[in-house]
Write a structure and sequence with these properties.
By secondary structure, the chain is α/β, with parallel strands linked by helices. 43% of the residues lie in helices and 16% in strands. The protein has a 6-stranded parallel beta sheet with strand order 3-4-2-1-5-6, with helices on both faces. Strand 3 (92-97), helix 4 (105-117) and strand 4 (124-132) form a beta-alpha-beta unit. The structure holds farnesyl diphosphate.
Length: 226
């Protein structure tokens, strides 16, 4: 039996380049990306992954042109109710991480509602990172520790992060040819296996995910030991 990672994280990069190559607007790339994101996460849960974390929007992405951001928020609003229904049917819990104060207020409200509605989901957890930046998250945890005026253990520190209570990712997949973390889960990925795909995210199929999972199954994780 191949070993399935308990937690996979995906940096969904390449929507814009996928659209450009087809002479389509960037928004078309994001729409296709949204569809892929739903299908891939359902597939991951179906094959036994328990946690799927998706990097949908970084703090740095928030300085993109307002038109592109508005398009992304519209997509979020448009597909939100339908996706919550899917999560409920599949007993998947939603968790949203990121700085909601940087996003339009209704995005934060919808996220909270989605988390509440799916709170009983016991089959898996879908973690959506929007308005998320790892350095900002780390700094806010450090500042909380300073305010508390005491030294912390690794466990206590992790409990101050937005991912508190979640296991660290076992496998991080980045599509879109770039090979970097781009301010994503810097603490949590200390021992995560990395997998890079040259495919743009809208072209990354469920079979490509299977391939990444097979690749993961062949790795030896030593956590610094011999
Ligand atoms: C990276 O591609 C992708 C994003 C910044 C957005 C990812 C969003 C989705 C998959 C749709 C779902 C959206 C929400 C808000 C839930 P890029 O635009 O950086 O592509 P490029 O590097 O080719 O320009």
């Amino acid at each position: 039996m191949t070993e399935i990672p308990r937690h996979i994280a995906i940096i969904m990069d390449g929507n814009g380049r996928w659209a450009k190559k087809r002479l389509l607007p960037r928004s078309a790339g994001h729409r296709e990306g949204m569809k892929r994101m739903i299908s891939l996460s359902e597939h991951a849960f179906d094959v036994g992954v328990e946690y799927v974390t998706l990097f949908a929007l970084s703090t740095e992405n928030l300085s993109r042109p307002q038109e592109e951001l508005d398009g992304l928020f519209s997509l979020f609003r448009k597909y939100f109710a339908e996706n919550i229904q899917r999560l409920l049917q599949k007993h998947i819990r939603l968790r949203v991480v990121g700085d909601m104060s940087l996003l339009p207020p209704d995005i934060g409200e919808l996220s909270r509602k989605g988390e509440e509605a799916t709170a009983a989901g016991e089959r898996g957890t879908l973690v959506l990172a929007i308005g998320y930046g790892a350095r900002q998250e780390l700094l806010s945890a450090v500042n909380a520790a300073v305010r508390a005026g005491k030294e912390l253990s690794q466990e206590e520190f992790a409990s101050l992060l937005s991912t508190a209570g979640l296991p660290d990712p076992d496998l991080l997949i980045r599509t879109g040819r770039e090979k970097r973390l781009s301010n994503f889960l810097l603490w949590q990925c200390a021992y995560t296996e990395l997998y890079f795909s040259d495919k743009m995210f809208p072209a990354f199929t469920n079979a490509d995910l299977d391939h990444a999972l097979e690749n993961y199954a062949g790795r030896e994780r030593r956590y610094g030991k011999i």
